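Hi R.,

Here's the chain you asked about this morning:
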Amino acid sequence: VQLQASGGGLVQPGGSLRLACAASGSIRTIYDMGWYRQAPEKERELVAAITRAGTTNYRDSAKGRFTISRDNAKNTVYLQMNSLKPEDTAVYYCNAKIMSWVVSEYWGQGTLVTVSS
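And the predicted structure, written out as tokens:
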């Protein structure tokens, strides 16, 4: 099983980006999916998560600006980020709990988001 993240880049403050993360491989069921981020010299933190049924959870700083969604048919999770701020600059990682033969946790390779003028 692999998670492939895409969509990072350089954006000005106030701008938008959409991240995507597609799971591939021997997949029976994908349970919770989420996005984490890690800024330089800081710990990795949860940004947003979504259950298979679509229940979402956001860190306070993301509420009202970011939207997490998923397409179960495509095994893909998205993160729409609006009104980006310099403090959103980080490497963003997708995460998923996936059942192949057993349930395991997987991480994507990370995609860099830089918010700067």
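The mean pLDDT is 97.

Let me know if you need anything else.
M.
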